């Protein structure tokens, strides 16, 4: 397909006049190339020529270009991510290689934080792979898309609870539970007080270090085994480790990736 383009040059004070006249045409979009120049796009030469009549008192240049299918380009850019030793994460099931002998998770990229592409998420998953999760009860604090709770279920956890205090996380949590076939995942929007006195074998927190430290007194009461913390810049590593140790948590394992750090602590 072809885009029929009309380039319009004008004095900066006349931009509203140009945009107003374009509104009366059959233009399907326009872009400000630079101050004083707008390119308007049309589906046909006839539509463009009709617009040129309305805009004839400006400097005009007509051109044609092959139309770019931006959605197709975006879809072509999507790819599966191989995370840790045993996971492949993709925004669509069609992108999972048929011969991939890995745990597959489907997490669309447009969703809340936690698509697997960020170093902090990958570090969490790598640390989870070091832990025996079969038949364990697990908790994901600040769950975002739920990717970590889903990963724990893939690694054998019996029951996962995920929560976030951001209302925008509700939809991705619900949809990702369905698209990944994870009925053992329960989730809610709220705070940690909602889980009462429940204990968990593994707890994950992939959130800001300041929030991790602030929540530690509450979270520690629910950790009966391991706590994994991530979302932490290397320069904040000692700040988080010191806070965990003050609450009786001992560093068991740690990993770094670029400027990011994550650690596993035992209660």
Produce the secondary structure layout.
Layout: E1 2-9, H1 15-23, E2 29-34, E3 37-42, H2 45-54, E4 59-66, H3 70-77, E5 81-83, E6 87-90, E7 103-106, H4 119-128, E8 137-141, H5 147-154, E9 159-164, H6 170-179, E10 185-189, E11 200-206, H7 209-220, E12 223-233, H8 237-246, E13 250-257, E14 260-266
Helix pairs in contact: 4-5, 7-8
Distance between the termini: 62 Å
Mean pLDDT: 92
Structural class, judged by helices and strands?
Answer: alpha/beta
Largest sheet: 7 strands, mixed
Share of helix among residues?
A: 25-40%
- Looking at the structure, what is the overall shape? elongated
**Count of extended strands:** 14
Q: How much β-strand is present in the residues?
A: 25-35%
Low-confidence segments: none
Number of helices: 8
In short:
The protein has 267 residues and is of the alpha/beta class.
Account of the 3D structure:
This protein has about 270 residues and is of the alpha/beta class. The chain is about 30% helix and about 35% strand. It has 8 helices and 14 strands. The protein has helices at about 15-25, 45-55, 70-75, 120-130, 145-155, 170-180, 210-220, 235-245, and strands spanning about 1-10, 30-35, 35-40, 60-65, 80-85, 85-90, 105, 135-140, 160-165, 185-190, 200-205, 225-235, 250-255, 260-265. The protein has a 7-stranded mixed sheet, sandwiched between helices. Strand 2 (about 30-35) and strand 3 form a beta hairpin. Helix 4 (about 120-130) runs parallel beside helix 5 (about 145-155) and helix 7 (about 210-220) packs parallel to helix 8. The longest helix is centred in the C-terminal third of the chain and has 12 residues, at about 210-220. The protein is elongated. The model has no long low-confidence stretch (mean pLDDT about 90).
């Amino acid at each position: 397909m072809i885009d029929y383009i009309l380039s319009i040059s004008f004095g900066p004070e006349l931009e509203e006049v140009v945009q107003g006249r374009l509104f009366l045409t059959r233009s399907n979009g326009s872009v400000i190339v630079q101050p004083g120049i707008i390119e308007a796009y049309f589906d046909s030469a006839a539509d463009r020529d009709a617009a040129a009549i309305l805009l004839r008192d400006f400097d005009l240049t007509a051109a044609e270009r092959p139309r770019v299918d931006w959605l197709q380009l975006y879809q072509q850019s999507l790819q599966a991510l191989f995370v840790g030793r045993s996971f492949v994460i993709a925004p669509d099931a069609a992108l999972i290689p048929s011969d991939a002998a890995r745990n597959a998770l489907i997490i669309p990229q447009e969703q809340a934080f936690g698509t697997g592409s960020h170093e902090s998420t990958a570090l969490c998953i790598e640390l989870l792979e070091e832990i025996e999760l079969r038949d364990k009860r697990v908790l994901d604090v600040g769950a975002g898309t739920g990717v970590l709770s889903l990963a724990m279920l893939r690694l054998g956890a019996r029951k996962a609870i995920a929560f976030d205090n951001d209302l925008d996380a509700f939809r991705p949590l619900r949809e990702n539970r369905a698209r990944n076939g994870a009925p053992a995942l329960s989730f809610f929007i709220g705070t940690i007080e909602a889980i009462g006195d429940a204990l968990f074998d593994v707890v994950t927190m992939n959130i800001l270090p300041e929030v991790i430290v602030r929540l530690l007194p509450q979270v520690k009461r629910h950790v009966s085994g391991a706590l994994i913390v991530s979302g932490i810049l290397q320069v904040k590593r000692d700040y988080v480790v010191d806070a965990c140790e003050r609450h009786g948590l001992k560093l068991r394992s740690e990993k770094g990736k670029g400027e990011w750090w994550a650690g596993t602590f035992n209660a």
